[in-house]
Amino acid sequence: MDENQADNAAYKDAQKRRLEELQKRQAAQAQLSAIVNKVFEPTAIARLSNIRMSNENLYMQIVQFFVSAVQSGKLSGKVTEEQVKQVASQLLSTRRETTIRRA
Fold it and tell me: What structural domains and CATH numbers belong to the chain?
């Protein structure tokens, strides 16, 4: 009986930790969404959501780039879709291409 109670307590602790982690993630997502809505124009947000669906890392790089630019005062006003496309293409062009050669 003691082993069963210990297993049950361990399960409840793990469940509590997962719930807390999920709540933290949801709070961070809500905060990020609020920042995105404040910094980007609606067309740029639509473009970002498309990017996010295909490449989460690229999305985060773009958002971080523009948020830091706005916070440092280098950028005033809302970010346009064209600006998002330019930064995305710059970030993607820095990737190293892998080529496969057949012998």
Answer: 2-93 (1.10.8.140)
> Where do we find the tokens 């996010």?
52
Closest CA to 84 of 41, 29, 28: 41
pTM for this entry:
0.69
pLDDT in single tens digits along all 103 residues of the chain: 567 887 888 888 899 999 999 999 999 888 888 888 988 999 999 999 999 999 999 999 999 999 888 888 888 889 999 999 999 999 888 766 677 788 7
What are residue 40's DSSP bridge partners?
A: 79
DSSP state of 87: H
Beta-carbon contacts of residue 36 (< 8 Å; ≥ 6 apart): 45, 48, 63
Is residue 33 within 8 Å of 67, Cβ to Cβ? Answer: no
Which of the 8 DSSP states describes residue 79?
A: B
Question: Are 91 and 61 within 8 A, CB to CB?
Answer: yes
